[in-house]
Each structure stands twice: as C-alpha cells, then as structure tokens.
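Input.
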Amino acid sequence: MYNTSNDLTVSDFYIDRHQDSFLFGAWETNATLKRKIFPYGTEFVPSLSLVEGSPRFRMEKVGDSSSYETHFFSTLPNSLENQLVVNAGLGVPKSKIIADRRYNALSINAAYKQITPLQDVLWDPRRDPTRLTYTFQAGMISDDLRPLGEKRGEIFINARRSESGTISGSPLFCAVERFRSVTLSPGNVVVSDMEVATEFMLMDPSTGGNHIHALCRLAVFLVPNPNSREGVLWQEVEGKAVALYDYELDMHRKQELLPSGQMAVCVETPKMVVQCI
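Output.
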C-alpha cells in the first residue's frame, strides 16, 4: 500500500492487493433494517423514538433502506507493539485498516436526513481513536419557534474486540464495539449506551474482491443511574440489551481508471492524503 498526495503522477501509484486488507477503500453501501427486537417489551426502551424508529432515524421502519458511502484507510496505529518496534529498531511497524469514523459518521447522518444534522466530527485516530466529538448544525427550536442553542455530542468507545478468518475461501472480519454517547444541549443532557456488532464477508475474492455482504446488529442498553427510573429498569434486566436492530449491508467498492489503463482502489484519509492499492 502506498500513500500519495493529490499532485502525484500516475507512475507514483503502487498497485498491490492483500487478503488482510479487503476492507480498504471507498464503499457504496446500502443498509436495510431487517428486524427490531425488544426482549423485555417496549416499556423497557428508554425512548419512544427507538420504538417507532431506530437509533439511526426516528422514522426508520423495518424494510427501509438507505444508501451512503463509507471509507476504510490504512494507518500506523500508535500501539505499544509499534512503539517497541520503532524504538528498538526491530523492524517495520505494522499498519492497520480502520474505519474513517469522521467521514462515515457525516455520511451516514446525511443519508438518514436527521432533523438536526451534523456540522462536523472531531476525531484524531493517532492521539485518541476512542473518542469523537459531534457538533450539530443550527435547527433545534422550541414550541414557540425560539432557537434552543448549540447541541454537541461526545462518543466514548469503551471496549472493542475483533476477529478475522475465512469461510469457504472467503475472508471474514468481525468487530464488536461498546460505546457511550453523551448529548449536550441547553438545559439537557442525554446519556445512552450502545453496542455495535458487524460481520463483513468478501463475496468475490477470486474476481477482485469488490463486493462485501455484512450483517450489523445495534444493541441499546439502559444507563445504570441509581436515581432514575431507567436505573431501576437497568437493575431489573441485569444490564442486558433492551432493544436490538438488525441490518443487512450490501457494499460495492469504488474503483478508478488510471490514465495507464490500470484499475486502482483509492481513498482519502482524514489527513487529506490519498491512498491507493
């Protein structure tokens, strides 16, 4: 894999494909909500919008589909392993394929046409990849049509686990993330806990690897606040998920035809660097 800037010539592209990087690139993604499950009944769900819709969109119904673009790029994580390799001169640090959380959050938010859309997402994958800050555009108004002020969100990824393998020769990657969301607006603070589990399978490894089928489950948890009704309900369900949303994702990787006649897979990183394979 080779990092390029926008002013490089065609000869600077290095074309190489690796099985462990099948998620790399820009993907045209179509997500369909297949089912909603409320294990303890709707009375345990913390918000009516989660019953009528989903965490992605308050009006989303089972069977609804939305399309957006998602990006995955290569980075050198600031891990202990890589620090030891660099400091001790023991070899070359290992790169990882990661999701561009800023781009993907903005892309998904725009696709679902939120009442208060995102204005920007602050995320530094090198300094702290586990935290994102959302700022929202103006749009919230009260019943008497007065602006309600700035709205901001903080996302904290508390735990993550991933596995990879193959099934019938097709590469498979699975990831589970648990995170807490804190949304701040004038006079109001909303805290929510969620878990996202996604399984990506490459459908066409023998013909270039540009089609992925993925299954994604969003799980909503109650917040264990002992001084609220939600905290009491959290104790009743023993901290288990109270709402589940299952999606099927159909992903097609975008390709670019270079002047040389070669097909390349390219994606722009958060640092405005273009990477190609």
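Residues 1-20 have pLDDT under 50 and may be disordered.
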